[in-house]
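Researcher: Please translate sequence to structure tokens.
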Amino acid sequence: MSLIAIALLTGQTAPAPAAAPVTGASVGPVTGAAPAVTSKFTLDTPIETIEADAKGKEVLTADLGGDVSQHPMYESFKSMSLNQVAPMSGGKITDDVLKKVATDLAAIK
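Model: Translation complete:
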């Protein structure tokens, strides 16, 4: 059983949405700096978005112990991110698991 499946079977409710980031702040021009390389996916990306990408699906399957898209409750959690599902996992999706997924997702370009 995948870690997401275990999380959803605990019956816990989803946490309140995180506050929106502050926008509109200006830090001024940056000269001589290379643009930041961002990952295609993060722990805040909806699970269904990661699952739709072949490499993303491979990461989730490998790191979470199974094909999460085959879970009977997939429709209920697919729009949630791993950061949202983890607190509902009853400790099954640990910080170490999240770090592994984050590292593997960051490798996808």
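Researcher: Any highlights?
Model: DSSP finds six helices and no strands in the chain.
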